[in-house]
Rhs protein
Amino acid sequence: MPRALSSPEGVTVWSAATKPYGEVSETMTPDPATGQTVVTNLRLPGQYDERLLGSLGLQGPYYKWNRWYLPSVGRYMELDPLALEGGFDGVGWYAPDWYNYGDGNPLTNVDPTGRQTFVSLELCDSEVRGG
């Protein structure tokens, strides 16, 4: 997830503090050169914030290629598509695992498509310079 965006002059115009399941606290500062406010809708890997509930003061749902995700509860709104394709593990349609994000561990696992969890190999915060 992006942590900050800057203007061509290097002034931070957008920054975010996140909670483990993707809730975001955004700080937006108008670009001093243009006066425009910058916003990004990118969230956790594969997520796009549609900002559908912003008028209600709520975050999400975030779109994830195959289903919608609610960061406030850390769960998907729909059943895992793999379950619909016959990928049952014997626990039934409404088992918590079918709606979990990252197998319930967002600190080390990612689910970029909403279909399968992967262990994140990069567990440290990084910064991209000059990109």
